[in-house]
Give the backbone structure.
Amino acid sequence: MGFPLSMDHQKIMAVKIKSVAKQLPPYYRETADIIPFVKIWLHGQDERFIRKVIKLFGNAGVDKRYSIMSPEEVFSNTSFEEKNDIYIRECSKLAEMSVQKALDKAGWLAGELDYIITVSCTGIMIPSVDAYLVNHFKMKQDIVRLPVTEMGCAAGISGIIYAKNFLKANPGKKAAVVAVESPTATFQLQDFSMANIVSAAIFGDGAATILLSSCPEDEGPEIMAEEMYHFYDAEYMMGFKLTNTGLQMILDETVPETISAHFPKIVHPFLEKNGSHIDEINHLIFHPGGRKIVQTVEDLFGVLGKNIDDTREVLKQYGNMSSVTVLYVLERFLEKDIPKGDKGLMLSFGPGFSAQSILLQW
């Protein structure tokens, strides 16, 4: 028979979110300003098809998106090597700036970090960006590194889960999860498929860093539980195909229906297992995959009397930045005055196909 943990021991074992900071790339455009580039790109295509694509951009739920490249560069016939070189150079800068911002918010020094996880799927770099961050910030020489490269949109939450497990096993330690993505670097100039077009319409670039701690003195929402839910036989639904011209988007149109069908099996058992219920969840921190996915999840949560207004607003202001996006949503909640005891549910979906969940308590 086990003994219940004392309050002091529970506090020592707790893993808390200390800070989140976003970093945007230098270039940005309103969706209306991108349409002329799209029209030039589509020149020579069927008129009905062009009208359909323009309408799709207008209805994507994205007012503005940021990029590591100017629109002229995005729509130019550059090679995979050239685009990937830009990705390496610019994403390294964004990662550095987001880490510094998060450290400043937390009042930490880079040398205090014990664990660094970097998350990206939109380019290829070996060594991964964490190696450059260790050198740039002169982090501990025995810092533990974990690059996460193939989890797609879900990886922002994946990284937090890996950090939480490390910190739970190592009380009194500090971790950083750095997500940096450039979906615009994966745009395929010769690909007029709906997957490439939808990707261009909804995605944007960005970076964010989240700092976590298992030090008893650190305050912030506590990670109470986490879970990954894997859909069987759904590998074809989302991902990238590596081609001679770069990473070609795979995005199946049935993703929203698949999420809808599995939704009750993802959310309710997870909460039940952890002694909670959807009625007790005050805040929904959901990854905005795209307008259709946001609408699908909004309908599902709306029936339960919940809203995902912050998710919709992040999609509108920045687009879907793959793994980074859910951290932009989380930052909005950390900037609010949330009452102690409130619970939050983080949720994202990614290639595999998988759903990743985190239960938070303020």
About this structure: The chain has a mean pLDDT of 91. The first helix runs from residue 7 to 13. The radius of gyration is 20 Å.
